[in-house]
Design brief:
This is Stress response protein. The chain is about 70% helix and about 0% strand. By secondary structure, the chain is mostly helical. It has one domain: YjbJ (Protein Yjbj, Chain: A, Orthogonal Bundle).
C-alpha cells in the first residue's frame, strides 16, 4: 500500500492498528497522523523488533485488511 493510499485510509486503519498492536496508544496514533514510516518505527520501538520485522508485520496486516483487490 503506497503512502498516499495509506494516509487516505488512516481513519479506517487507526482503530484496526490499535487492535492489532495494543501497545500503541491513541496519542501515539494521533501524533503520527497516518505516516506509514512512522507507524513502522512506532511498532518497532514498542515491540523491540528489528525494522525489517516491523515492516513485514505491517505489510502482512495491510494485505490481510486491504488486499490488492480492496485498494
Amino acid at each position: 500500500m503506497n503512502e498516499d493510499i495509506f494516509m487516505g485510509k488512516w481513519a479506517q486503519l487507526k482503530g484496526k492498528i490499535k487492535q492489532e498492536w495494543g501497545n500503541l496508544t491513541d496519542d501515539d496514533l494521533d501524533r503520527i497522523s497516518g505516516k506509514r514510516e512512522e507507524v513502522v518505527g512506532l511498532v518497532q520501538e514498542r515491540y523491540g523488533w528489528e525494522r525489517e520485522r516491523a515492516e513485514t508485520e505491517l505489510n502482512t496486516f495491510l494485505d490481510r485488511e486491504f488486499g490488492p483487490a480492496k485498494v
